[in-house]
Amino acid sequence: MKAVIVNDFRAEPELTELPTPEPGPGELLVHLLAAGLNPFDWKVADGALKDVVPHSFPLVLGSDGAGLVVKTGPGVTRFREGDRVYGQFMRLPQGQGSYSEFTLAHQDGKLALLPDELDYPLAAALPTAAVTAYQAVGAANLKDGQTLLINGASGGVGQSAVQFAARLGARVLATGTADVADYLRELGAHTVIDFTEAPTHEQVAAAYPDGIDAMLDLVASTVSDVNALSELVRNGGTVVSTTHTADPETLAGRGIQGVNLASDATPETLAELARLAASGDLRVRIEQTVPLAEAPEAVAKARAGHSRGKTVILP
Ligand SMILES: NC(=O)c1ccc[n+]([C@@H]2O[C@H](COP(=O)([O-])OP(=O)(O)OC[C@H]3O[C@@H](n4cnc5c(N)ncnc54)[C@H](OP(=O)(O)O)[C@@H]3O)[C@@H](O)[C@H]2O)c1
Q1: What dotted CATH number matches 2-125+284-314?
Q2: Which of 7, 96, 256, 297 has an alpha carbon 20 to 30 Å from 72's alpha carbon atom?
């Protein structure tokens, strides 16, 4: 089978040929028909989880995917051949991932059945970004009419977060450049803040001198980045970071709850998001679709930034 792999941490991704794996006890062989690209994919390839879990090389890149169950191992009861499934397929100790024609998943893994109305590319675009958005907005503890700043709203997680927060009745302040502003408003943003015009915290402070209720940060690379923006959040509010840059202790000193979110794509959450996407209640913009052979270039482009939605790879 064809797969895009790295042979070591920080090595260049490359297209290669690997043996198609055989499902063991409790495992499914999935013929992947689409894979979703996330910043997490290249961060892992750079060694982000080096000291957390063992990795096998060659390591197939990618987590998110959607496809068809083509074979089941002994003891599989939850899925059967012919099932359309989607979810997260990254298994670092086995060197397995989603940028591949086939992969293995455990039946108890982060997987759910796909509704008939949801196509594979859209399904592959959902797991990491939409689950994170869903759980991050949930962690923000919003009440109807409260104001939430989403810093990084123009990317994969942000676009879904805007929709979930708007649906809860929040007033959403979304960062984004002019090219994406109309789309963010369509998704439910009340105000779009062009962070290239003036610093976001200055623009929000000018418009909301009494402060805002919550902030979801998808961008910060340091604790001090988050601290600067969290000055905008009122006592009793919440700051949620997806880049592990919230400092809950310091924030607690100002009466703010700080959350460093580690998203968890449970089968139940995946099933719920598939239902929302299939019914059109969750919109996901696929920015580009590329064949597997072009995944290395797509990863390089993603590293350079400027995401305006999801990149989907077709194995
Ligand atoms: N903890 C978890 O469980 C978890 C799960 C998923 C994602 N994440 C992390 O969350 C982050 C966002 O993920 P993603 O998939 O949404 O990434 P993405 O699709 O690459 O989007 C990032 C967005 O941030 C925007 N941005 C960059 N600098 C900005 C700034 N200074 N102010 C405002 N916006 C800015 C970019 O716009 P421009 O290009 O215009 O700069 C881009 O649209 C990543 O770091 C990812 O690794 C964590």
Answers
A1: 3.90.180.10
A2: 7
Average of per-residue pLDDT across 78-87 = 98
Average model confidence (pLDDT) across the chain: 97
- pLDDT the model gives residue 94: 98
- Which residues are 212's β-sheet partners? 233
Q: What's the CA-to-centroid distance between 155 and ligand 1, angstroms?
A: 5
Query: If you measure from the C-alpha of residue 133 to the centroid of ligand 1, how many angstroms do you get, rounded to a whole number?
Result: 11
Of the options 3.40.50.2000, 3.50.50.60, 3.40.50.720, 3.60.21.10, the CATH number for the domain spanning 129-260:
3.40.50.720
Start-end of CATH 3.40.50.720 domains in the chain: 129-260
pLDDT one-digit tens code per residue, 195-245: 999 999 999 999 999 999 999 999 999 999 998 899 999 999 999 999 999
Question: Which atom in ligand 1 lies closest to the alpha carbon of residue 151?
Answer: 33
In the chain, which residues fall in CATH 3.90.180.10?
A: 2-125+284-314
159 C-alpha vs ligand 1 centroid, how far in Å? 10
